[in-house]
Write a structure and sequence with these properties.
By secondary structure, the protein is of the alpha/beta class. The protein has helices at residues 3-16, 25-37, 62-72; strands at 50-55, 81-86, 105-107, 123-126, 134-138, 144-146.
Length: 148
């Protein structure tokens, strides 16, 4: 796989904007999931503008998931991004997410997030449009595509 095409696809998809809207039911599921893990942070969910889902399992390749996880970790200090790490670290490097406690990272080493059926791959969910969901998912060749 050529890294150049992955990065071009990633940034193109993110820059094109939010065109495909999905139902807000998924946002409500994520909010509920967040509150189950951070019960004292009800108002903090509203500050998130993006949700990054890092998954080990799913329909995209392991190398693509690993590259996605490493790239998205560069934004770990952004308080407007919620990271849901649904992985055990057996198939991808999640070391960048390990360390001090962060309010914007939820660990799901039991893979319960997968049961919500929100995304079948690693994904970025843009919530900047009035908490409506626009999803960018990693496909099986590592390109981030909009609207799943």
């Amino acid at each position: 796989m050529n890294n150049k095409y992955f990065w071009v696809g990633l940034f193109t998809a993110l820059l094109l904007g939010a065109c495909t809207q999905k139902q807000t039911g998924d946002v409500d599921k994520i909010r509920t999931y967040y509150l189950e893990h951070r019960p004292d942070s009800e108002k903090e969910f509203e500050r998130f503008r993006k949700i990054v889902i890092v998954r080990e399992n799913g329909s995209s390749c392991m190398n693509c998931n690993d590259m996605f996880a490493r790239h998205m970790a560069d934004s770990i200090d952004n308080p407007q991004i919620l990271f849901i790490v649904s992985a055990m670290g057996n198939k991808m490097d999640i070391s960048a997410y390990i360390g001090r406690e962060r309010k914007n990272v939820i660990w799901d080493n039991l893979l319960k997030f997968d049961k919500l059926n929100i995304s079948k791959t690693c994904a970025v969910i843009d919530l900047s449009q009035n908490n409506r969901k626009t999803e960018y998912s990693v496909d099986n060749i590592g390109v981030l595509i909009q609207g799943r």
